[in-house]
Amino acid sequence: MKRILLTGASSGIGLAMLKELIKKDYYVYGIGRDFSSALADTGKLTDDKFRLLSMDLIDTVDLPKLVKDILNDGPIDILINNAGVAYYGNHETIAAEHIEEMVTVNLTVPLLLSRLVLPAMKLRGFGMIVNVSSVTAKNTANTHGCAYGATKAGLSSFGASLFEEARKSGVKVMNIHPDLTDTALYRNADFFPGEACDAHLEAAEIARMTVAAIEEMYTNPGLNISDLTLRPQRNVLRKK
Ligand SMILES: NC(=O)c1ccc[n+]([C@@H]2O[C@H](COP(=O)([O-])OP(=O)(O)OC[C@H]3O[C@@H](n4cnc5c(N)ncnc54)[C@H](OP(=O)(O)O)[C@@H]3O)[C@@H](O)[C@H]2O)c1
Q: Total structural domains in the chain?
């Protein structure tokens, strides 16, 4: 059974990934702060396939112990850097602590976790790092989301560079670039994704495509899927 460290497992895309992964041959260590609503779902799932760990990723000093404790039980085959937070508006209106939160959760944490899992992956000659970035990373400009877009562009740049650096050691790196997805991410925005089913993605769709790509890379060791971009058919926003 492959062992996965998945951040942001308590809601949205991460919770959908947790559910998709444990249907297959994976054991998932899921990180989040508040699993109370996720437990309504996960309570119905076989808990011998996952462990939920409550922690605030802002406290980056706790990351080495987290990884060490998991490695004491066995290898980490896949790291999925999915946790993220978004605040929108003209840049000067975004609170300084919210800018720092986005930089830490969206960018610093994936960089630190990758650093912690890489030595063992390289020694074994195998491992995967999956970064849940965003289509915003591919835009030249993200007005009303300058800082969020910058964190995601940084994450995608990191993933692409890390692949080039680590590919000869057998480590695979995949950046996922979802567009508007119907999750709680927009709690701090003045808009929602469009309501019609062709105007947003579902978290379950992102999860299915991500797990399918992971499985494909397992089946074909010579293949690295570096970029998975998922977009709804139509581009529609709803004002709150
Ligand atoms: N929704 C979209 O349209 C969209 C599009 C492109 C990319 N993405 C990316 O997809 C990823 C997942 O987001 P989502 O849409 O599923 O939103 P979500 O439902 O709000 O999920 C965010 C997840 O990140 C976790 N998280 C945030 N801050 C944390 C912290 N300080 N410590 C620990 N966990 C923390 C949350 O845990 P708690 O709630 O327990 O704190 C939650 O599990 C993010 O990286 C986001 O940027 C989303």
A: 1
Which residue has its alpha carbon closest to ligand 1 atom 7?
Answer: 134
CATH of the domain at 83: 3.40.50.720
Note whether residue 207 is domain-resident.
no
Q: Does 181 fall in a domain? A: no
Atom of ligand 1 nearest to the CA of 33: 40
Contact 128, 79 (CB under 8 A): yes
14 pocket-lining for ligand 1 (C-beta < 6 Å): yes
pLDDT tens track for 152-181: 999 999 999 999 999 999 999 999 999 999
Does ligand 1 come within 6 angstroms of the Cβ of 231?
Answer: no
The alpha carbon of 12 and the centre of ligand 1 are apart by a number of angstroms equal to 7
Burial of 90 (0-12, 13-18, 19+ CB in 10 A): exposed
Parent domain of 41: 2-172
